[in-house]
């Protein structure tokens, strides 16, 4: 398929941009990676044929604007722009092209992914302004989880809440799971239909997913990307009664409490405000910081507990796969998570683990249950869908 496609992947505090010149390309011609957005320590780095390096105070909008300006000549005559959209609600079950009507529909579910959908919509609008006339495509995190059965996606609440308000578990990071499941099968030289996988996507947002024969059957995130594992700034699972208790005790309004659960909890909150970033916490821990250790220990235990729970979906698990920034790079964290999972004899090969996987991505000893590291590539998936949904000729 002809023409170039730009991919805009807005995470909660990151922005990944990639420009592809054809649908068959596995590596983009230009890549940009912005991290720690919304803080004083934000940075934007680029690889490929443009010059751009910025750091300091920067948000998603400033990073995307700087990139589009710097890459102006390469972005001429784009075939399409693919956007990651985290929450598609019940209306969007697969990738689609965007127009005023679909954008208005998306706005309605924005409150269900407060750290993401508003940024995703900002990216769509900014591209419409700075790159007018180019078709925009939305690729949803929720789409891959459409195969989760009702018994798994329902909460133990009145059924009318689901029927009337769409209260159910949706699941996120689906584009990542779609890529990693296919890539794992390719590396194992097996068909995805022959594999039962548990994938842990550990980045700023963290979730895990049970994939049976290529299809998502269970995942840890829910109605919103707040449920499940301990994350960078998000609490993950809590007792819902905690909200009433804290509201009555501290007289904080609901908005403030939700803000704390989304933006000031997780690794950041548990480390007493030290950091939401695993690299910083590991460094602090190695220097004897007890708060960092406490946060990391809780992160590892909660992750192991959820991975073990997901394994109830299978009679046999073919592989546990780590992905996302932490999953792909933090050997120490992978080792500690598996050490917390005591009823299965996972045994890592320390050379494989330290090098983030052998040639196939294996990190466990041969002859022991298979554990792998498989780097995700959400951008490539988004590019593929964008090529498919836009035409060869304008
Ligand atoms: N070498 C590393 N060691 C430990 N943690 C890492 C490393 N590289 C990245 N990370 C962590 O990965 C997380 C970001 O993950 P990433 O998947 O890139 O983010 P996002 O969810 O925004 O896409 C941060 O906590 C960061 O500290
Ligand atoms: C859904 C989600 O948590 O995304 P991210 O990891 O990019 O924050
Ligand atoms: Mg991410």
Automatic annotation (TrEMBL):
UniProt lineage: Bacteria, Pseudomonadati, Pseudomonadota, Gammaproteobacteria, Oceanospirillales
Keywords of the record: ATP-binding, Cytoplasm, Kinase, Magnesium, Metal-binding, Nucleotide-binding, Transferase
Family under the similarity heading: Belongs to the acetokinase family.
Cofactor binding mode and count: Mg(2+). Can also accept Mn(2+).
Protein name stated in the entry: Acetate kinase
Reaction(s) catalysed (UniProt annotation): acetate + ATP = acetyl phosphate + ADP
Biological pathway: Metabolic intermediate biosynthesis; acetyl-CoA biosynthesis; acetyl-CoA from acetate: step 1/2
Gene Ontology molecular-function annotations: acetate kinase activity; ATP binding; magnesium ion binding
Compartment(s) of residence: Cytoplasm
GO biological process: acetate metabolic process; acetyl-CoA biosynthetic process
Quaternary structure and interacting proteins, as annotated: Homodimer.
Listed SUPFAM superfamilies: Actin-like ATPase domain (SSF53067)
Binding-site residues for Mg(2+), renumbered to this chain: 9, 378
Main location: cytoplasm
Active site feature: 141
Entry binding sites for ATP: 16, 201-205, 277-279, 325-329
A Pfam family per the record: Acetate_kinase
Residues that coordinate or bind substrate: 84
InterPro entries for this protein: Ac/propionate_kinase, Aliphatic_acid_kin_short-chain, Aliphatic_acid_kinase_CS, ATPase_NBD
Annotated site (Transition state stabilizer): 173, 234
Organism: Thalassolituus maritimus
Cofactor: Mg(2+); Mn(2+)
EC number per UniProt: 2.7.2.1
Domain of life the protein comes from: Bacteria
